[in-house]
Design goal:
69% helix; single chain; mainly alpha
Length: 74
């Protein structure tokens, strides 16, 4: 029998930790990461939070195609 690798052990541990988290904890973590990204961009580029958020949102929207389900309204 092979000895389990460190990477596999770590992966299993992280998966178990994620499964144990509540949806509220996942949303809170995602929100915190977004806020950290805005703050990091603002600090790196010397702009305010509002401008940093607008830039990040514009970059996320760039290249997206409108949903076919939404359809076009005449």
């Amino acid at each position: 029998m092979r000895k389990p690798s460190v990477a596999n052990s770590l992966r299993e541990e992280l998966v178990a930790r994620d499964v144990a988290r509540s949806p509220e904890e996942c949303v809170a973590d995602a929100w915190a990461l977004g806020q950290e990204a805005i703050a990091a961009y603002a600090a790196a580029h010397g702009v305010g939070r509002r401008r940093a958020r607008a830039f990040i949102e514009a970059m996320r929207a760039a290249g997206r195609k409108p949903s076919k389900a939404a359809g076009t309204r005449p």
